[in-house]
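Note to self: user wants both folds in one dump. Writing first protein now.
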Amino acid sequence: MPRQRQNSSQFLWFVLTLAVAGIAVLLALVSRTHEIPEALLRGSRWALVVALFGYGCVRRSLMTWIFVAMVIGGIVGYDFPHQAAGLQVITQIFLRLIKAIIAPLIFSTLVVGIAGHSDVKQVGRMGVKALIFFEVITTLALVIGLVAINMSKAGVGLRPPEAQAPSAISVQHQTASDVVLHIFPENIAKSIAEGQVLQVVVFALIFALALSMLPQPRRAPLLSFCESLSETMFKFTNIVMYLAAPAVGAAIAYTIGQLGVGVLANLLKLLATLYVALIVFIVLVLIPSAMLFRIPLRAFVRAVSEPAAIAFATTSSEAALPRAMEEMEAMGVPRQIVAFVIPTGYSFNLAGSALYLTLAAIFVAQAADVHLSWQQQAVLLLTLMLTSKGVAGVPRAGLVILLATVGSFNLPMWPVYILLGVDALLDMGRTAVNVIANCLASVVVAKWEGEFGRVRPDIVEVLSE
């Protein structure tokens, strides 16, 4: 009964919120052609704020609060633009905490991902084939994202808020030798302090390879430490995410208060660019890959639909992991392949996140009116190809890598505030594609190994019931 009352309360608040939102939108549309008192328009907007806040209280989910904060932030920024400027501090606190996660998260996840699966004799052909597939898929996703954002130019035309108006921004010219030298760290502490994420990645890769060469007794303590550090940083991220909804609301309020509602056109263009690029990636990369390895598409779509829906709704690859592994095993992928490929893919095969990161980084450069040459964009792709391997499968984790990349290229932070406002909407599509690509990878490796179709008898019995 308490559960039924809760569901009933949620439904009533949802209907009430929809009704109030409909009235507010209708009045706003009518006001374009007919004169309506400003007090009535403002009253309808703040009635919507109250309804949304009430719905958020009864719904009690992070995603709900993020969407509620987006709308409330937009209304606050529109009605109180001067006061909204002071809310920027909330967003800055959130971004500072996210930036604090970057180095330990990337280091620990890469070391565990490589040193934890470094025994070539144990991993064998399966590991090599999985990594080849991961790299090809991720690189193609990065290229598609780069082409899409250069075609749509979603960031062009944005102007920085007055408080953030930069002096002339320029990307320092570098020779080929400078670019190569910049990849390798000379002092890891300095690299961390300066936010040189590519140098942290290179250090982590070499450290992981060195660790993998140690005998098991010597390797175990450091590997255990890195695993604990990785898990700790996941928990750290979860704590910081409690600030996500207020930070999103503050970012939207500040952006609209400083730039006006016109900024929404650029955000909608970016949103459309991402989803079109994700569809192109599925059609031109994932489907041909499935056809190349003669994977039954209809059966795969049925198997992957539920995990992808979970990932889309929760914006968390981790939330879909158990169901994804179960569905792939039921489809005919042997358990040992599922257990290796899908979890490994959560660090090395986040194709949707990689595609988004390219879009977002170039969007920031376009908004800042910084022209990146093809050489600089190539370095950007290389940076993202490496740093995206450290993206955890948790909500808003891509923001960690985006901030690191923006800092590495000396780009301003104010476009990131704008992106933060719609990051939840962007996160839904890219996370679903992450799950689809990882599920496909497990089937591809099973087909490549000639192991596909060996379903355990108990799985067949469960499916037949």
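First done. Writing the second protein, which came from a different request thread.
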Amino acid sequence: MSLSQADQSTNRPRYSEWIRSSNNITQQFMAIGGQSDVVSLAGGLPASELYPVEAIKQASIRALDRWGSTALEYGPVEGFPALRAAIAERMSREHRHRFGIENILLTTGAMQGLDLIGKVLIDPGDLIVAQFPTYLGALDAWRTRRPSYRKLDWNLDDPDLLGSLPRAKFVYTVPNYSNPTGALVPQNARGGLLSRVIVANTWLVEDDPYLPLQLTGAAGPSILAADAATRPEGQYDGPVIYLGTLSKSVVPGLRVGWVVAEPKVIQLLALAKQCSDLSSSMFSQAVALEFLDSGIESEIIPRIVACYRERRDALCASAEALLNEWFEWDVPPGGMFLWMRAKSPALDTNHLYSFALQEKVAFVPSSVFDPDGALTNAMRLNFTRNVPDRLEEGVRRLRRAVERYLSS
């Protein structure tokens, strides 16, 4: 739903201009997810029945016992120092380069990291080269900055792309199981993009929330790891700005994310964060630290992956049986989403969306993943939130919605 016609019925000062280019689709599918009679395939939510409630409870008790009132205070803008050190160690282990605490900023979820990057790097009209289709949350985070976009289609020898990179403030990519497509970007394409970013002397934002959700095969090294491997040991000083989170591997309610970048970028992001929230929740960060120290995360991830693999397969099988006439897709090797492309360019998922809601099923139309809103013949379906039987029911309802749409 567009907000371009936002109500301005009084004579008070007008709302900010950026509101006119926004939408409330995220609010819609978050609200729809709470309606028991609707099969929501729209959100990007983990399976709540897998949340480690007891482990979080015990971690909360240990955090208060260990840190006392410190966990209940305002904290450093950069984040709880002990957790920053733990994340630096984690990143050093996973990415095979020593990252220091000066390379780490803790955020209220990775989404805040995107927002801070926009505040630090984007002035009105600046160019972003963005992997396409583009994560809706990133487009929303930067909407107030009013940037322009060049869509990254991974044709890395395209003269237009090569000409755009030196003018771009940064390149944005989600190489591991991208939202919305679920695609895993091959290592040669990652390396090719990194080399071109280095030549262009710009930044590369690597958004990596879905790394733990490797359903088929391994993701391989991150772009951050590839760049760090070429640099001397010590604090990282390269062009990659990396975002991570515990929302997919632990629970989203902790709202614990992090940014990894060269120290100067971390300092500037912290300055922007200071203007935003003073500090993220010290209590959440203290609980996250105790949870990570316990090693429970490594125990629960295999159970999460097995569950999501079963649900992905159930959704794909139902789609093959009931939607194959109109849509095509690739089975995602990881993440949370199935990206369905209409075989006919005339099939408009913006219009299909209203028929789906009438059938009590929800998805996300492709237009919201396009900075121009012009991509209208695809849709994103989530498979992590619902059990297989409910996913199958959702696909049956979606088939009825397609049939009604085509006959209308």
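Dump finished. Worth passing along: The chain has two domains: 17-52+299-407, 73-294.
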